[in-house]
């Protein structure tokens, strides 16, 4: 990537940018929240009473008398199902599951195609060192789905206790990556005798154990104030500083390349759309089938591709298009004004002022883009405003997708009588972690020993980011809104059990690697998979037992 760390004049710019990222994430999503947000539902909660009704018509009538059960998104999924699909319940449920898959695709695709692209370009522009970029921008890009899902779960005017979804998603994703992904890598590389760097592994495992221990203390204590949440989130800054010092003075991670992590297995390039097929083997018939299949996929994804393409500025050489670039800077302020007014009456004076401002700013930016850009190539000057715009708008779309995803999972929990927390531990965690599975396993298999080292390191750096930064900044936002009071988090023994199994997996990896001279092997991989399956099975059996 050509990172340069020798020039001191970029020092203040780097620090300012990293602080700006944190401030944007905190202020942009810190919507007003009531102190009751983090109080769990009781059996007398109006939404829980849905299980006492046995037909769609009565459930629809009841839903009209209470507030929406999942208020994070823009769609009331329970009313949509029970009030419109009374005669075709299976069709309605199937459509909800298809929409769930679409939301997972949009969230992952937005993160990899737009969010990571903006981060990589910003890291080049700011001349960030590869190690600093790896533990900040790379972790932010890979952890974007978990970050936004956590923010949505904790924040909002009426989250109705969906903090359990956020906590279980972070813990479930961490367990999946550190047990399943690391286990698969270990089994796949058992015959190659790949060695893992001892100091980097010890550093990551120790910091991750510290993060898990801190989270466990918060759950046991049952509440946390603003300063405690800020201290919890700041542990990630300590980790970043430690990684940088290890690289600067200890020689760790000297060959780390940010771009190589995103070149393989990216969600932005689905497997069935890739062009890396052997041209000499694939005959004309297969080529035509591949073309028609790509055309079908393109038509199916167009409704969720076009709105993002017309609102997220992109200035890369490969994807540059002046008409879409002009359209993106024109429609982006309009989209932001629509989101700003989503909770207001569209006929109010405040809403009209916001709409007028958004449209005016969009027209001005569009005219500037027309006059300052060329049709043949993206702009070479004033790149920072373009990249910052792409960064903000990709965050906006990721947040919108996460809002709908959490709202839909909460609604599915009420529909099928399953706790939203267990859906966060499984469905949401798996969906957000599939990118890590594809990327890290592919890199470990095809990029040699160095790729295996980076892949394994990423399996621990990602969960550290999700636990300390993604969850931490959510707690900071909630605690700030009730400052100087503390936010109350109900102690969940089952979540503590999941944390315990997560620690067991880390200890198992530590002991087996050290006994095997830091070589990855099948014993380590099988053991990690068994630990994950045991943890998941116990949690599912407990949930099934609650339903009886």
From TrEMBL:
<dbReference type="Pfam" id="PF01699">
    <property type="entry name" value="Na_Ca_ex"/>
</dbReference>
<feature type="domain" description="Sodium/calcium exchanger membrane region">
    <location>
        <begin position="97"/>
        <end position="244"/>
    </location>
</feature>
<dbReference type="GO" id="GO:0008324">
    <property type="term" value="F:monoatomic cation transmembrane transporter activity"/>
</dbReference>
<feature type="transmembrane region" description="Helical">
    <location>
        <begin position="464"/>
        <end position="483"/>
    </location>
</feature>
<keyword id="KW-0472">Membrane</keyword>
<feature type="transmembrane region" description="Helical">
    <location>
        <begin position="520"/>
        <end position="541"/>
    </location>
</feature>
<feature type="transmembrane region" description="Helical">
    <location>
        <begin position="495"/>
        <end position="514"/>
    </location>
</feature>
<keyword id="KW-0050">Antiport</keyword>
<feature type="transmembrane region" description="Helical">
    <location>
        <begin position="320"/>
        <end position="341"/>
    </location>
</feature>
<dbReference type="GO" id="GO:0015297">
    <property type="term" value="F:antiporter activity"/>
</dbReference>
<keyword id="KW-0633">Potassium transport</keyword>
<feature type="transmembrane region" description="Helical">
    <location>
        <begin position="88"/>
        <end position="107"/>
    </location>
</feature>
<comment type="similarity">
    <text>Belongs to the Ca(2+):cation antiporter (CaCA) (TC 2.A.19) family. Cation/calcium exchanger (CCX) subfamily.</text>
</comment>
<keyword id="KW-0406">Ion transport</keyword>
<dbReference type="GO" id="GO:0006813">
    <property type="term" value="P:potassium ion transport"/>
</dbReference>
<dbReference type="InterPro" id="IPR051359">
    <property type="entry name" value="CaCA_antiporter"/>
</dbReference>
<feature type="transmembrane region" description="Helical">
    <location>
        <begin position="412"/>
        <end position="431"/>
    </location>
</feature>
<keyword id="KW-0630">Potassium</keyword>
<protein>
    <recommendedName>
        <fullName>Sodium/calcium exchanger membrane region domain-containing protein</fullName>
    </recommendedName>
</protein>
<feature type="transmembrane region" description="Helical">
    <location>
        <begin position="353"/>
        <end position="370"/>
    </location>
</feature>
<keyword id="KW-0812">Transmembrane</keyword>
<keyword id="KW-0813">Transport</keyword>
<feature type="transmembrane region" description="Helical">
    <location>
        <begin position="12"/>
        <end position="31"/>
    </location>
</feature>
<keyword id="KW-1133">Transmembrane helix</keyword>
<dbReference type="InterPro" id="IPR044880">
    <property type="entry name" value="NCX_ion-bd_dom_sf"/>
</dbReference>
<feature type="transmembrane region" description="Helical">
    <location>
        <begin position="201"/>
        <end position="221"/>
    </location>
</feature>
<feature type="transmembrane region" description="Helical">
    <location>
        <begin position="165"/>
        <end position="189"/>
    </location>
</feature>
<dbReference type="InterPro" id="IPR004837">
    <property type="entry name" value="NaCa_Exmemb"/>
</dbReference>
<feature type="transmembrane region" description="Helical">
    <location>
        <begin position="128"/>
        <end position="145"/>
    </location>
</feature>
<feature type="domain" description="Sodium/calcium exchanger membrane region">
    <location>
        <begin position="387"/>
        <end position="540"/>
    </location>
</feature>
<dbReference type="GO" id="GO:0006814">
    <property type="term" value="P:sodium ion transport"/>
</dbReference>
<dbReference type="GO" id="GO:0016020">
    <property type="term" value="C:membrane"/>
</dbReference>
<feature type="transmembrane region" description="Helical">
    <location>
        <begin position="227"/>
        <end position="247"/>
    </location>
</feature>
<keyword id="KW-0915">Sodium</keyword>
<keyword id="KW-0739">Sodium transport</keyword>
<feature type="transmembrane region" description="Helical">
    <location>
        <begin position="382"/>
        <end position="400"/>
    </location>
</feature>
